[in-house]
Amino acid sequence: MTDIAHPDSNVDASANPPSPGWLRILARLYDPTVWVGELAGMRHRRAALVANAYGRVVEIGAGTGLNIPHYPADVAELILTEPEP
Fold it and tell me: How far apart are CA 43 and CA 71, in angstroms?
């Protein structure tokens, strides 16, 4: 079996990270862009995903926080993390 490398496999993505300004713009545009998906069912899926959460919860990759309103009152502490600045 021969390994086939992707043409960009030698490119270090961390060498040219997106600028913080560009990431802020994308974050501000994300929620308005996905509203159709939220209305079409993602809102329900988010609510179902976190419905049984309780106690101390850590959400990894919280993005713009679209899951936050769906957490039940049984959540004593909600810790949100996001790898993008």
Answer: 12
What does the alpha-carbon distance between residue 65 and residue 81 come to, in Å, rounded to a whole number?
A: 10
Confidence (pLDDT) at 26: 84
Dist. CA 6–CA 37, nearest whole Å: 32
Q: Measured in Å, how far apart are the chain's first and last C-alpha atoms?
A: 40
> How far, CA to CA in Å, does 32 sit from each of 7, 11, 17?
34, 32, 24
User: In the chain, which stretches have pLDDT less than 50?
Assistant: 1-3
pLDDT, residue 14, reads 62
Provide the whole-model pTM. Answer: 0.65
